[in-house]
Amino acid sequence: MTNAIGELEKDANCIFVIGSNTTENHPVIGMKIKQNKLYNGAKLIVADPRRTDLAEIADVYMPHLPGSDVALVNAMMNVIISEDLADQAFIAEHTEGYEAMAAVVEKFTPEFAEPITGVPAEDIRAAARLYAQSGNAAICYAMGLTQHRTGTDNVKSVCNLAMLTGNMGRPGTGVDPLRGQNNVQGACDMGALPVVYTAYQAVTNEAVRTKFEQAWGISLPKENGLVLTEVINKAHHGEMKALYVFGENPMMSDPDLQHVEEALEKLDFLVVQDIFLTETAKYADVVLPGSCFAEKDGTFSNTERRVQRVRKAVSAPGQALADWEILCEISSRMGYPMNYTDAEEIFEEMRKLTPSYAGINYARLEKGGLQWPCPTEEHPGTPFLHKDGNFSRGKGAFTAIDYIPPGELPDDDYPLILTTGRSLFHYHTGTMTRRASALNAHMPTAELEINPVLAKAKGIGNGELLKISTRRGSLEVTAKVTEMVAPQVVFMTFHFAETAANRLTSAEFLDPVAKIPEYKVSAAKVEKI
């Protein structure tokens, strides 16, 4: 997040939520948005294929079709430019690339975008005017925006929108990605990505690489590594012999699970390190029991870049160890000794190599969390980025982005769009929450949300069993007849192993930059059983 969570409750005059069912997937942040709307009079714009909780109280709700985000945001920018609502002073002083972006946006009138997005032109105009004229305006997004083959384009589009209106570098403004899992931000900050060391220091940067080589006393690779989707494909082709899966469950979370299953079975050796025997662990040659959050010391970095201490409350069961202990032990046995004594020693080494974390230490964190960048021990941390329009790269870069349709569009054989997501009661692949009896009582099985118009046409009643199919396969699932989705859209969560939605999603269409699969758009059909 460029800005702090608390600003969504008190500083933002307008909040644009796109591709995020915030009250179910990020309940604390969703509550703050609702409080700002209901008690402070903040304006609320929601763009989502489903009529979510926030959509019910939105000033403007735009139920755009999955995969049409760029067209929708470009149309909003078309209105802002054509009606002279852009912040020309901010653009001139703090940005570059405006002319190329504006040239692409010119054709995206609301009327042009309406058949692409399914959103009435006047609603697009209303949303654009509200966002541009409300003062401090913030954008919140989640995986509904990123899990497309144009996910990077989608994110750059909302950044264009924020810069176009000067909504950067002040409290209550900015672009706020709501992270999908606990400590995802921290994992990325610590270099758990194949292209960077800690805090996004590029693997391909020779000076950075030399710094880490000197600290660790070892020669490091010059090339970027592979992302998960590339790893699975190489395993499927026999080019990947061994895989170490750590705190991840690709046999539930990856697209086209039959493809994943075949890939894992072709491996010579699979190690899974986790706190439960996951669906992926069932394919493992070795399972290493790790420890959960309450069983270890360390830090988490949350979605607003806030680094917080985690303290051991109970001992891990059986032979389970803290994850860092397992990794150090394996490294030592493979010939590179790692002789750290505790989590704090690892953190101290990390912050000496990581400029944005350099001022954070355990002593300071005892008094409360700190938001990076925090370059010195006297620095108070950074609640919001790009203060006064001073971007970290110098000037903010507009990107000229045209609309690219989803890789798999509905046709005569598969006339519907299947989109996937989460529920309030379960978390990600259900590894933890489906072991909680209270949560299972609320939502014991998967459901397919289907519009009443479509249900009537197919003769499907609420609670009846239906079959949903895509080009990857079919599932039998209970129907939930609801007006939350449009007649041409169906929705399903991916928490349930016995009805695994990702058996239906495609691994074929990936974002060219982030390599994220297009989970949110699959051509589908439904039949009554």
Structure description:
It is a single chain. This protein has 529 residues and is α/β, with parallel strands linked by helices. The protein has three domains: 7-178, 3-Layer(aba) Sandwich (Dimethylsulfoxide Reductase, domain 2); 184-375, Rossmann fold; 416-528, Barwin-like endoglucanases (Beta Barrel). Helix content is 33%, strand content 17%. The chain contains 21 helices and 19 strands. The strands form five sheets. The protein has a six-stranded mixed beta barrel. Helix 5 packs antiparallel against helix 8 (110-117), helix 5 (69-82) crosses helix 9 and helix 14 (228-236) packs across helix 16. The longest helix is centred in the N-terminal third of the chain and has 14 residues, at 27-40. The radius of gyration is 24 Å and the shape is globular. The two termini are 45 Å apart.
Topology record:
Layout: H1 7-10, E1 14-18, H2 22-25, H3 27-40, E2 43-47, H4 53-56, E3 60-62, H5 69-82, H6 88-94, E4 95-96, H7 98-105, H8 110-117, H9 121-133, E5 137-141, H10 143-146, H11 151-164, E6 175-177, H12 184-189, H13 206-216, H14 228-236, E7 242-246, H15 250-253, H16 257-266, E8 269-274, E9 286-289, E10 298-301, E11 306-310, H17 323-333, H18 343-352, H19 362-365, E12 370-371, E13 396-397, E14 416-421, H20 437-442, E15 447-450, H21 452-458, E16 465-470, E17 473-481, E18 489-493, E19 522-528
Parallel strand pairs: 1-2, 1-5, 2-3, 4-13, 5-6, 7-8, 8-9, 14-18, 15-17
Antiparallel strand pairs: 10-11, 11-12, 14-19, 15-18, 16-17, 16-19
Helix pairs in contact: 5-8, 5-9, 5-11, 8-9, 14-16
